[in-house]
Amino acid sequence: DQQVKQNSPSLSVQEGRISILNCDYTNSMFDYFLWYKKYPAEGPTFLISISSIKDKNEDGRFTVFLNKSAKHLSLHIVPSQPGDSAVYFCAASAGAGSYQLTFGKGTKLSVIP
Amino acid sequence: DTGVSQNPRHKITKRGQNVTFRCDPISEHNRLYWYRQTLGQGPEFLTYFQNEAQLEKSRLLSDRFSAERPKGSFSTLEIQRTEQGDSAMYLCASRGVANTGELFFGEGSRLTVL
């Protein structure tokens, strides 16, 4: 039972355009959401996060949007750069306790020069 | 480098052998996590330590798996009687006391069971 779903296994975008990666979740207890980026043969690297009390968080070229009623979040990358090519994982945490993260299966982003 | 360190980075073993992985977290981090990642999947939670106490274990952690963090610093993950289905990337992560939710991951230890 996938509690965090990334329904697009891959996405190709032209350099300079916007990349939009989507994520859906089913567990209403999730209250903290994160995006991680992973290059081959490396561990995941934290990118950006958002608390459930917000609906938007921005960090440079990266913006995460949260729609709690739809249990949906998205990551926008503007403008996309070739170095952004990686696998992006959406993750969620249920707050108090171990703060363990539940991950989606990932979306492979390819930014074409 | 003061990031999370894991070794060995790669391990190839024959079915039935035992393997052990080590994780050295970021020094001031008291919370340590083990995850497993297989091809085409996201990382899956295995177990969690706060200091030396193992507080949570996933049902994925069968009896053949054991994790320790004896002094609340480094951790080991041992897999006994390995099976081909154990082939995966084993990721260690740590976080500090501040509850920001962000985990810092190591580069992982890739296990191949022949």
**Number of β-strand runs of chain B:** 11
Write down the Rg of chain B. Answer: 13 Å
Say how many strands of chain A there are. Answer: 11
Report the sheet with the most strands of chain A, covering strand number, pairing sense and barrel closure: 6 strands, mixed
Beta-strand portion of chain A reads: over 45%
pLDDT average of chain B, as an integer? 92
Strand/helix succession of chain B: EEEEEEEEEEE
Class inferred from helices and paired strands of chain B: mainly beta
In brief:
Chain A has 113 residues and is mainly β.
If you had to describe this structure to a student in words, what would you say it looks like?
The complex is a heterodimer of chains A (113) and B (114). Chain A is mainly β and 113 residues long. Chain A has no helices and 11 strands. In chain A, the strands form 2 sheets. In chain A, strands 2, 4, 5, 9, 10 and 11 form a 6-stranded mixed β-sheet that branches. Chain A has a 5-stranded antiparallel β-sheet with strand order 1-3-8-7-6, with no helix packed on it. Chain A is globular, with a radius of gyration of 13 Å. Chain B has 114 residues and is an all-beta fold. In chain B, the strands form 2 sheets. In chain B, strands 2, 4, 5, 6, 9, 10 and 11 form a 7-stranded mixed β-sheet that branches. In chain B, strand 4 and strand 5 form a beta hairpin. The termini of chain B are far apart. Classes of the chains: A mainly beta (113), B mainly beta (114). At the A-B interface, strand 4, strand 5, strand 9 and strand 10 of A face strand 5, strand 9 and strand 10 of B.
